[in-house]
Amino acid sequence: MTTHAAHETQPRLPEHAPRLDWMKLAPDVFKALVRLDAAAKQGVEPRILDLVKIRASQINRCAFCLDMHSLDALAAGESAQRILQLSAWTESRHFYTSQEIAAIELTEAITVLTDGFVPDEVYARAAGEFDETELAHLIAAITAINAFNRFGVSTRMVPGHYTPSA
User: Whole-prediction pTM value?
Assistant: First the structure.
């Protein structure tokens, strides 16, 4: 059995290299995506946005975005426990409000389109928790983080260097 102290003394594996710096090479695309994200977040509570960004990043396996948005959520006062439980939210619903669960379910449905659509019951639950303007902004926020995730995983953005601004 390895102790926590022993784990800290072992050398870490080297970082992978990013494939390209898409933000520098396509600055207009990056700026447009930042504008979409900024416009979307105007209609959604910050704590819900954090959960949505973390959950989509988990599903999409975007380590860079997962690192960034988990650190942002912690800096904003989110508990580590709720962040850790998010990947298993169906078994730990009691950590979240009904509105947060509706947003998480909608995030999963929009992020994983294996059936080709968002199920009516998932949409109905979200529509029951958010007014139409909030719901439109939530869908935009989910779309934006999915776009960021796709850039992150395709260009192999390197996690571990982000520092929250607040």
Answer: 0.90
Q: What is the pLDDT of residue 43?
A: 86
Query: Encoding tokens for residue 17?
Result: 């290299």
Query: What token pair was written down for 114?
Result: 């294996």
Query: What is the number of domains present in the chain?
Result: 1
* Residue 3 within a domain: no
Q: With respect to residue 5, please indicate whether it lies within any of the assigned structural domains.
A: no
Residue 14 structure tokens: 């080297």
Residue 161 to residue 164: CA distance in whole angstroms: 10
Q: Residue range 46-50: average pLDDT? A: 97
Q: Which structural domain range is residue 126 located in?
A: 25-154
- Output the DSSP codes for 104-124: HHHHHHHH--TTSS--HHHHH
Nearest to 110 by CA among 100, 99, 123: 123
Among all chains, which residue has been given the structure tokens 């779309």? Answer: 143
CATH of the domain at 41: 1.20.1290.10
Q: At what angle do helices 98-111 and 132-154 cross, to 10 degrees?
A: 50
